[in-house]
Every structure is written in C-alpha cells, then in structure tokens.
Amino acid sequence: MQEHRHDHARTADLSALYERVAQRLGVPQASRSGKGSGFTAAEIARQLKWLDQAERAERQLGRDGSWAHDPNRLLALRQARDLARALARKQACELTRDPECEPSRRPAFSPSRESFPPAHGGQAR
Asked: How far apart are CA 45 and CA 85, in angstroms?
C-alpha cells in the first residue's frame, strides 16, 4: 500500500511538471487549475497530437531557413512530448497494474537524453 501511494506521488509530480511545460508552450487545455489533479488519457492523447504537429511545423521552419524558427522551442516541444508519453505510460500502468511496469523492469526516463538526436559519429559536441 505504501508503494502504491509513493508511485501515485511520482505520477502527480510528473503531471505537475508536464502541466508547467505544456502551459509555457501554449498546448491547448494544458491548464488544470480548478479541475483536480492529473490529465485524462483522452486529454493526453489530444495534447500529444498537438505536440507532434507543432514539432513538425517548427522543424519545417528550420529546414526552410525561416527567421521564425526557434531551436529552443523545438527542443521544448520534444521534451513535452516525451513527458506526455511517460505520463500516459504511467497512467496505463496504474490502471492495469501490469507487472511489466514495475520500476525494476522499466527503463529509466530522461527527457533530456531522449530528446536529443545522436551526435555525428556518436560523440557529443
């Protein structure tokens, strides 16, 4: 029982972090103030779709050489998408109580590492 409460607290922390990042990026319906805590699976799915479209648009601005391209926004969009996916996975694990979701069997989540493409030649610059 103690472990379940601890896991729920981590989900709440992840949800709060995602909410702050999503609000700064202007993700529709990212504000949960007054609506309780956490996002529903349907809300996360809609927001993931928006994040994917925004990332594609920002990436295209960069390819086109537009003055409006913001590489920091592109990175933030990728991190928000990774956070939303992690939140969705965590919610699914809590609902199903799947043994595959145990922390010992789950890969560690690091949005900063997963968001960056591999460097040329495998070396960091």
From this structure: 9
